[in-house]
Design goal:
There is one protein chain. The chain is α/β, with parallel strands linked by helices. Helix 6 links the parallel strand 4 and strand 5. Strands 14-11-13-12-16-17-15-18 form an eight-stranded antiparallel sheet. The chain folds into three domains: about 220 residues, Rossmann fold; about 90 residues, 3-Layer(aba) Sandwich (Rossmann fold), CATH 3.40.50.1100; about 180 residues, Biosynthetic Threonine Deaminase, domain 3, CATH 3.40.1020.
């Protein structure tokens, strides 16, 4: 540890790196009833802390080594750091990246002059290929984490935190992939502020360091999850393992939903968008705080913001569930419109975030329902108990991965034997009671055959609804919908409806 501390105190990082702010998270602090601070490494020139270790390592190279060029393997953030550091030091950089690397990271490396080679589906395959190229070309390999100068460069994050917050700290939370950041920060924090806890955080599907610590030796996992691609490493470093084994106070594992909820927390408080690995430490902080009540200051590192924009769709979909702010339920009701209204009334004013249904002729209706919660799991359990007591069959789908990823989007399909169905696409007002008002506008003889709604944060709710109405009643339906006043488009003859939803006319 003393050698690591010496290297941290003499590290060369500020030729390219910034001293990033330590921001207070006011909203989250109020929720947890204790101070929560966020170290903003997403504000580095390459939007990640990795520039620190990469530059510190390359700054130690001799002129002869610089002339040979450098090479590295990375899922993206280390790659950008190496590319920028190499350009500043006047040497060439070859970057081997997994083929699964987000495009935004590949483009950023190329923009900084790095020669990108895409190889393998994960970091370890890319690293093996980089080692082969190292042997062939003589370039100097810049390890993303298992190198004393890289560890020291990352450790300057911890040094800054201690300088920026001289008051007592209960715990600092650090994301772990290979362990370079955790090892460096743990060394300097343990040396200068031994009373502060240092907690590592890993995804539950990539517990690389925790598995090694549990087994007492570095191990190679068969596979790791790729959602938090910045920490998707199957094997920790030997140096990082030794330091983490001796210096960490524990490791917290969190799932994808918790990471998504932490991305939302960062945005809500500081209007920044963290990548999944960047929000990992904050997710761990929240999990740890739930099990360790107190008033001490907690600090998490936002390690990066290199996020593909299209991944935000998944993050937004899962954040409310990860925060315990939404329950997903499968509910069986009578095929009776009055029972629909009774069910909605039992929700006691809670916002319906999702409501998916398709008619069947068995006399029962099965709904996939999302309900907004204010008080987390306890409120969800109470709601389910209330619905069951009222005679409804309820299955909790909130932790059902197949339901969350797939089934929610598949509720529907063709309804065989259903005649005279009109399928309409509505813009409902996004306010309580909109669905009940819609139901009240329909005559009892008109059968609601399809309903598909999901809250997307708009000022209107996008709804696809099916109504079975005999031909002679069609004018009356048109008049009723006009009186309702919700804008709609008749999609009955839309090819997508005919081919995938209309059992009566499919294939015609």
């Amino acid at each position: 540890m003393q050698d690591t501390v010496r290297r941290i105190l003499t590290a060369r990082v500020y030729d390219v790196a910034e001293e990033t702010p330590l921001d207070g998270l006011q909203r989250l602090s109020a929720r947890l009833d204790r101070p929560v601070l966020l170290k903003r490494e997403d504000l580095q020139p390459v939007f990640s802390f990795k520039i620190r270790g990469a530059y510190n390592r390359i700054a130690q190279l001799t002129e002869a080594e610089l002339a040979r060029g450098v090479i590295c393997a990375s899922a993206g953030n280390h790659a950008q750091g190496v590319a920028l550091a190499a350009a500043r030091r006047g040497t060439t950089a070859t970057i081997v990246m997994p083929t699964t690397t987000p495009g935004i990271k590949v483009a950023a490396v190329k923009a900084r002059g790095g020669n990108v080679v895409l190889h393998g589906d994960e970091f370890d395959q890319a690293a093996a290929h980089a080692r082969r190229l190292e042997a062939e070309t003589g370039a100097v390999f810049i390890h993303p984490f298992d190198d004393p100068d890289v560890i020291a460069g990352q450790g300057t994050v911890g040094l800054e935190i201690l300088r920026q917050h001289p008051d007592p700290i209960e715990a600092v939370f650090v994301p772990i992939g290979g362990g370079g950041l955790a090892a460096g920060m743990a060394a300097i924090i343990r040396f200068l502020r031994p009373e502060a806890k240092i907690i590592g955080v890993e995804p539950v599907d990539a517990p690389t360091m925790k598995t090694a610590l549990d087994k007492g030796e570095v191990v190679t996992l068969n596979e790791v999850g790729l959602f938090a691609d910045g920490v998707a490493v199957r094997r920790a470093g030997d140096l990082t393992f030794a330091l983490c084994r001796d210096l960490l106070d524990g490791i917290v594992l969190v799932d994808t939903d918790a990471i998504c909820a932490a991305v939302k927390d960062v945005f809500d408080d500081v209007r920044a968008v963290a990548e999944p690995a960047g929000a990992l430490a904050l997710a761990g902080l929240k999990s740890w705080a739930a099990d360790h009540p107190g008033s001490g200051t907690l600090i998490a590192v936002n390690s990066g913001a290199n996020l593909n924009f299209d991944r935000l769709r998944h993050v937004a979909e899962r954040a409310e569930i990860g925060e315990g702010a939404e329950a997903l339920l499968a509910v069986t009701l009578k095929e009776d419109r009055d029972d629909y209204s009774r069910f909605l009334t039992l929700l006691d004013g809670r916002s319906v975030t999702e409501f998916n249904y398709r008619w069947s002729d068995v006399g029962t209706a099965r709904f996939f329902v999302g309900v907004a919660l204010k008080n987390g799991p306890a409120e969800k359990d109470a709601l389910i108990a209330r619905l069951i007591a009222a005679g409804y069959a309820v299955e909790d789908m909130s932790d059902n991965e197949a339901a969350k990823l797939h089934v929610r989007h598949m509720v529907g399909g063709r309804a065989q034997g259903l005649a005279h169905e009109r399928v309409l696409r509505f813009a409902f007002p996004e306010r309580p009671g909109a669905f009940l008002r819609f139901l009240a506008s329909l005559k009892p003889a008109w059968t609601l055959t399809l309903f598909h709604y999901r809250n997307h944060g708009d000022d209107v709710g996008r709804v696809l609804a099916g109504i079975s109405v005999r031909p002679e009643e069609q004018p009356a339906l048109t008049e009723a919908l006009g009186a309702l006043g919700y804008p709609y488009v008749d999609e009955t003859d839309n090819p997508a409806i005919r081919l995938f939803l209309d059992g009566a006319r499919a294939g015609s």
